[in-house]
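Hi V.,

Quick status before I head out on leave. The structure for the redesign project is tokenized and pasted below; the design run finished overnight.
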């Protein structure tokens, strides 16, 4: 169930509804919007009698939710969610760019790439300290040492750090260092990890599982939000298909699909989505044209020597071009009427 408050409802009215929900033994999730606040309810095993709320001051209506997800839905929150990472906004007017190496390799490599990224005006830096690798014999990341290198990069450049949290055991550690917690494709349905990360209040970038449907993707975000963390950024990174010219098939049609159903921002990762650097710029441009809220790309100063994902890493010059291209395309798309296009 979701409770829609009247436009003129006061903070006290919202607090009273939340109190009643808590007294019933459920969890209230107030979501303020531009024109009205709605309150989602979770923790209820079945339908709730709407008469509990009908006479409370400020309540416009109590609506039964028929979709399997509640808090991610545009039914609950009509306005786009803007996720804030310091002074950087994802889902607002700006096109967000996250860039950096696949993995933190050495302090020098990480710092050099960070300087390349920062020089373009990009504010969000990625790099894995804990790496999910297909083979147990491949480089698994430097763990805590990698996080320390990322913290040094932040201190030196001001870049915000996006890094993957691989499991619940290392969640406390990664939370201490990261500005944005990345949940990788392989973990999109690791429900205990989703719950654990839902208990933080740090922004989360949730990557789409490699065979996840739209509904599964949204429900994974719902796990995080149900724990009270509403700062979720969705990330399309390609799905597995029969196509063998590409590492994954980048499914850009999920961008308007997510925007239609959900208020959460969605970004696109054309690096893992294609696996080859010559495809990254065209698909990043396409992501901006499709109306994505941003992109995440891998960049390396010496891709031929990269410890992971070298073939998809952009060279510094390519990255500079990409930043200019996607920003120009985003301007054109932003001038078009997005709400009319998606709703
Ligand atoms: C990554 O972004 O470093 C990564 C491992 O991506 P994915 O989880 O999408 O494979
Ligand atoms: Mn990678």
């Amino acid at each position: 169930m979701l409770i829609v408050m009247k436009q003129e409802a006061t903070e006290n009215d919202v607090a009273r509804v939340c109190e009643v929900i808590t007294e019933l033994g459920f969890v209230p999730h107030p979501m303020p919007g531009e024109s009205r606040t709605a309150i989602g309810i979770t923790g209820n095993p079945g339908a709730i009698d709407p008469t509990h709320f009908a006479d409370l001051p400020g309540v416009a209506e109590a609506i039964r939710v028929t979709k399997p997800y509640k808090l991610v839905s545009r039914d609950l929150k009509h306005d786009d969610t803007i996720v804030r990472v310091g002074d950087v906004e994802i889902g607002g007017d700006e096109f967000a760019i996250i860039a950096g190496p696949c993995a933190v390799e050495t302090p020098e490599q990480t710092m050099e790439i960070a300087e390349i990224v920062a020089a373009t005006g990009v504010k969000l830096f990625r790099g894995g300290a804990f790496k999910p690798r297909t083979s147990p014999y491949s480089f698994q990341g430097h763990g805590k040492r990698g996080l320390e290198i990322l913290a040094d990069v932040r201190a030196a450049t001001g870049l915000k750090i996006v890094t993957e949290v691989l499991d619940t055991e290392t969640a406390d550690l990664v939370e201490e260092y990261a500005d944005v917690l990345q949940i990788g494709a392989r973990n999109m349905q690791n429900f205990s990890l989703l719950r654990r990360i839902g208990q933080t209040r740090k922004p989360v970038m949730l990557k789409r599982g490699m065979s996840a449907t739209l509904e599964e993707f949204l429900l994974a975000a719902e796990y995080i939000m149900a724990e009270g963390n509403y700062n979720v950024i969705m990330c399309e990174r390609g799905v597995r298909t029969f196509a063998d010219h590409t590492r994954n098939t980048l499914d850009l049609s999920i961008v308007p699909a997510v925007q239609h159903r959900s208020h959460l921002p969605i970004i696109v990762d054309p690096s893992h989505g294609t696996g080859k650097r010559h495809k990254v710029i065209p698909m990043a441009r396409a992501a901006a044209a499709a109306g994505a809220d941003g992109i995440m790309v891998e960049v390396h100063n010496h891709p031929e020597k990269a410890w992971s994902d070298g073939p998809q890493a952009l060279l510094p010059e390519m990255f500079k071009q990409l930043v200019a291209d996607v920003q120009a395309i985003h301007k054109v798309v932003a001038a078009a009427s997005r709400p009319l296009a998606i709703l």
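Above is the designed sequence. Residues 143 and 300 are 20 Å apart (CA to CA).

G. will cover questions while I'm gone.

Best,
W.
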